[in-house]
Amino acid sequence: MQMHQLGKTGPEVSAIGLGCMGMSGMYGPSDRAESIATIHAALDAGINLLDTGDFYGMGHNEMLIGEAIKGLRRDDFLISVKFGALRDPAGAWLGYDARPAAIRNFVAYTLQRLGVDHIDIYRPARLDPNVPIEDQVGAMAQLIKEGYIRHIGLSEVGADTIRRAAAVHPIVDLQIEYSLISRGIEDQILPTCRELGIGITAYGVLSRGLISGHWQKDATRKGDFRAFSPRFQAGNVEKNLELVEALRQIADAKGVSVAQIAIAWVDAQGKDIIPLVGARRRDRLTEALGSLSVELSAPDFAAIERAVPKDAAAGGRYPEAQLAHMDSEK
Predict the structure, then answer these.
(1) What are the sequence ranges of the domains in the chain?
(2) pLDDT in tens, 320-330
(3) Where in the numbering of this chain does the NADP-dependent oxidoreductase domain appear (predicted)?
(4) 10-39: pLDDT as tens digits
(5) Is CATH 3.40.50.10860 the right assignment for the domain spanning 3-210+259-294?
(6) Directed axis angle between helix 258-267 and helix 237-254, to 10°?
């Protein structure tokens, strides 16, 4: 497993990380035993970055990871946690809270659920418009002084917010969606991060399975939030799957899978970009790990660009109501 430094001030992380969100119901039912086995298989393969959020399954995901890492040597893995999203007992989303007091409350519960004494990378899931980013970063900086967290990250924020945050305390990475069909960060956000020495942990590298090569129309299940995603809606999903079939021709010619091509493309955009793969099963993890052996040539990149041009996706990456509140979209 190749290792890369996460930003200019961050830890050494594996070339890909494991995103654990899907193990806690966001994509419909998941198998607990298989989820834990997948986490163990990832660690055995050299992946050392586990990504979660305290609101995934309303604490379920952190407890699942806590069970998987129990008894393991703490220095053998890194945990990245997002916080701030509020949910009600029925699971509905209620907004965000990143007040300094709330941050201290969130981190206390996260440490308890994970069963660890510190979190390696801690980040607000979205920008709380009611709390200056300077106050949010300042609260996390205090948690670093107290030993509860090691590094500060950001998620889904724009270039101006990134600069303001970095002026308060070093930021190791920005977690944001980036894939062949979600390339908005290339305009301002990625250049800003590179100027400031901030890494990227890229989620959605397979666009929630849409460009994995495995997705079939009408495959969403009860409890799967993709049912509300514009790119999975009728009229859009058909066009997006046409892009996948164009990509499949390239993958077939190289003797690899569509998912491996898509992950390899993100990985090839720079060592400062760490793809997070959302594998919930060991077979999908094995496939994702195979992307690390895929070498893309200049003709390959040109063919991929023809197959999936920038902005070719039909539908937004989130519903318009959500995009309107996302700092990264401003």
Answers:
(1) 3-210+259-294
(2) 878 888 899 98
(3) 15-307
(4) 999 999 999 999 999 777 778 999 999 999
(5) no
(6) 90
